[in-house]
Specification:
Helix content: 40-55%
Structural class: alpha/beta
Oligomer: single chain
Number of strands: 6
Radius of gyration: 17 Å
Low-confidence stretches: none
CATH architecture of the largest domain: 2-Layer Sandwich
CATH class of the largest domain: Alpha Beta
Strand order of the largest sheet: 1-2-3
Strand content: 15-25%
Length: 151
């Protein structure tokens, strides 16, 4: 699915349809900015989601589009980072555990679902990582409740 229409990609304003999707929170301002930057840079790749955090912007893309986003020697992701003003991290859309390992940069021992609140407990090895910050990041990316536990 394309984030915004071709007309909105090439202009600085949104059409009524894309504007309504933004108001309904189906898309975010960061996704619009990223889509326009990808189009302007001629990267030729599509993403499923863009998540803006304090430090980074995470681009979730299919396995076929990840190499296009990165480019030769990382030149495309560097240009995209420059255009968006933050460090861009491209993550391949795959199973939850694999994505968590790539996002946090640690080995995941296990993923447990704690009922009734459907909190997912992510068990990782002790590493210099802030568990609360990691939990908030995962919640923002996956739109679920997480608790990161060090073992």
């Amino acid at each position: 699915m394309q984030v915004i229409c071709n007309v909105c990609l090439q202009s600085d304003i949104l059409c009524k349809g894309c504007g309504n999707r933004l108001k309904a929170r189906e898309i975010t301002g960061t996704e619009i900015s990223a889509a326009r930057a990808v189009h302007k840079l001629g990267i030729g790749a599509k993403f499923s989601h863009v998540i803006d955090t304090e430090k980074d912007i995470f681009v979730i893309a299919s396995a076929a589009d990840v190499p296009k986003f990165i480019g030769t020697s990382g030149k495309n992701v560097k240009k995209l980072s420059s255009a968006l003003g933050k460090n861009v991290r491209v993550v391949e859309k795959s199973e939850e555990r694999t994505m968590i390992e790539k996002i946090l940069g640690v080995h995941v021992i296990g993923v447990n679902v704690a009922y009734p609140g459907e909190i997912r407990k992510i068990r990782i090895h002790k590493k210099r990582i802030n568990a609360e910050e990691a939990s908030r990041l995962l919640e923002k990316i996956f739109n679920r409740r997480y608790e990161v536990v060090m073992e």
